[in-house]
Amino acid sequence: MKHYFFFTGIIFLTVLGCIFSVERMDLLSLRQIDITATVEESNGKSTLMWERLPYPCYYRIDTYIKTTGTITEETIYEHIKTEFSTSPSCQISSASIPFYYRITAYGMFGAVTAPSTPISTPYFTTKAPIPIYHYTADHPASLMPFLVWHSIPNAVLYEVEILSAPPSKEGGTKHSSTNHLMSTQNIFTNGWQADLRAYPTYEKLYWRVRALGLKHEPIGEFSVAEPLYLNKSIEFPNRPIPNTYDQILNFHQPLYPVYQWIPLNGVTRYEVELLTELPAQAHGTTPDPNRAWAQTTASANAIYDEYARPYAGTYYWRVRGLDAQNNTIGTWSDVASFTVEATTDHRLYAAALGDSITHGGGAISCSPAFLEYSYTTYLPFDCLNLGRSGDTAHMTLERFEQDVLPLHPANLLILTGSNSLRADTITPQDIIKDLDELQQKCLTHGIRPIFLTLLPLNPERITLAFHSETDPRWQWKLNAVNTWIRSQDFYVDIEPYFYDAQNRILDPLLSTDGLHPDINGKRIMAELINAHRDLFHELP
After folding, report:
1. How far apart are CA 183 and CA 114, in angstroms?
2. What is the pLDDT of residue 16?
3. What angle do CA 251, 254, 255 make, to 5 degrees?
4. pLDDT at position 7, please?
5. What is the pLDDT of residue 9?
């Protein structure tokens, strides 16, 4: 028996030695391999796929965000997260974020390849929307199908064109000169339930979509015309679709959730219910008896939760259309979910407090559910989003004990007061008083307050987007508040980077609606914050 163990040990050590030699001396020339990958999509889920190496290994996938180059005058890759996979694939986000991926193969004794050349996501740089739903001859659509596509950065709305045959020329920004049947621009999210009942004799149509800006100007081109096989005997879809497409994987959700969906054709009133467990009945037409919260809205495809959701666990939500008598139109939607992670034993490093500029959203129609519009997404460190849309500076102050104190972050980024600038009843002294009180509360509780200077406004665009006026004294108020902020111990001066060429108003290239920075604006905010990491209190 002793001889058995001896020889077994010798064999084991020999094998280990061989493996060590192969990996360390690169006998298989693995270090010369630059792993390349492609993005494949199925049912709205995107997967990064590459060829398996001719050696037993596992893979490290590092995700980076490419900076804008505005602050450092050069673009750099900021590391965001690391994942591992034993197979040559990894699920990735389809959100329109400048994500880049580097793949490294690992053996028993460490890396056996160099990190790959950065592989970019196709969703940020695409010139046209990419369809998610496909209706083939084997899986045809009804005469009222849902058409769904990946969102385009900074799009305000979309236009869908229905054609009897492929266009004479793909792409472009104009309707097809031939085969055009109909089009609509009244689409304010990345999906639409088409009404094709006027075309019952067609067995196949084509559809394509393009993104539009605030003034209905084209953003990019029409997508490649997509075949749309029809079967008039198929029942019409009768429930909205939770819009969980283009979600960013493994990122913290805002403290105040936003629920969004693809609406039913012709329905303008909806109810969302939130549950802490799966509903007793899937679909159906009545409220769940154990719902935790519910809210209705008119003429919308999203609802902003009025309550913070700080408690750890999985939450479930669904949506239904309603008629004027509160009867369900069709049935409840499928169930969607989100998870609030439990706080760890160590202290939270950072949180961001403020109004909708912090909460997220941009280009009017994009809610904070699209995390690409949150500046916290682009920070290379964990930062919990405590923003709430619609806050004035005073409203932000009022939620300190409820939303900030239980979390007790070491650092609190504070950006609030933009809605106060717009209101003609609020003075700069009012805003400063609220900000100062916020600061004192932070210091009392051992939290470092780090202010961000307020951004300029673009009143013309605000009026176009929200049909509301802006206090004509906003610039005077902005200067007074930001002068006070710059006199404090801890602040990041973001204001100078957001003016137009005339240095008068918020740059339209960085904000579609004149109030909320779009994706590149949020990236710049994050880069400026990261450039001032010396302001942060570091945890032991």
Report:
1. 50
2. 59
3. 130
4. 54
5. 59
Alpha helices in 65-127 (DSSP H): 122-125
Do 385 and 514 sit in the same domain of this protein? yes
CATH number of the CATH domain containing 474 = 3.40.50.1110
Domain count, the chain: 4
Q: Tokens for 406, please give them.
A: 């239980």
Cβ 432 vs Cβ 440: under 8 Å: no
CA 204 from chain centre, in angstroms, equals 34
The span from the CA of 126 to the CA of 199, in Å, is 31
Nearest CA to 498 among 476, 524, 474?
A: 524
Smallest CA-to-CA distance from 249 within 417, 93, 363 is with 93
In degrees, rounded to 5, the angle at the alpha carbon of residue 441 between the alpha carbons of residues 313 and 374 is 50
Q: Is 534 left (phi over 0), alpha (psi -120 to 50) or beta?
A: alpha
218 plus 280 within the same structural domain: no
User: Does residue 5 form part of some domain?
Assistant: no
Give the integer Cα–Cα distance in Å for 520 and 524: 6
> What residues pair up with 160 in beta bridges, in sequence order?
184, 209
Whether the Cβ atoms of residue 445 and residue 437 lie closer than 8 Å to each other:
no
Please check whether residue 284 lies inside any domain of the structure.
Answer: yes
Identify whether residues 515 and 374 lie together within a single domain: yes
Rounded-to-integer distance, Cα 525 and Cα 492, Å: 9
Expressed as residue numbers, the domain containing 415 is: 345-540
CATH number assigned to the domain comprising residue 244: 2.60.40.10
In single-letter form, the type of residue at position 472 comes to: P
pLDDT attached to residue 75: 81
Q: How many CB atoms lie within 10 A of CB 513?
A: 24
Q: Going along 118-239, which residue ranges are E strands?
A: 119-120, 146-148, 157-163, 180-187, 191-193, 204-212, 218-219, 226-229
Question: With the C-alpha atoms ordered 232, 234, 239, 243, is the resulting torsion angle positive or negative?
Answer: negative
- Which of 316, 342, 368 delimits the end of a domain? 342
What lies within 8 Å, CB to CB, of 298 at 6+ separation is 268, 269
Shortest CA distance to 54 belongs to which of 75, 28, 79, 85?
28
* CA–CA distance, 52 with 50 (Å, rounded to integer): 6
Q: Which residues pair with 184 in a beta bridge?
A: 160
The answer to whether residue 127 sits within a structural domain is no
Which stretches in the chain have pLDDT values below 70? Answer: 1-23, 249-250, 344-345
CA distance 470 to 461: 10
Same domain, residue pair 102 and 201: no
Residues 105 and 152 in one domain: no
As separate numbers, helices (DSSP H) first and strands (DSSP E) second, the chain gives 9, 28
Query: Residue 380: what pLDDT?
Result: 87
60 and 80 fall within a common domain: yes
| Spatial distance between the Cα atoms of 474 and 512, rounded to a whole number of angstroms | 19
Tracing tokens 């920070």 back to the chain, one arrives at: 379
**Euclidean distance between CA atoms 121 and 123, whole angstroms:** 6
Which pLDDT score is estimated for 438? 98
Would you give the DSSP letter of residue 506? B
What's residue 80's pLDDT? 84
The answer to the question of residue 213 being in a domain is yes
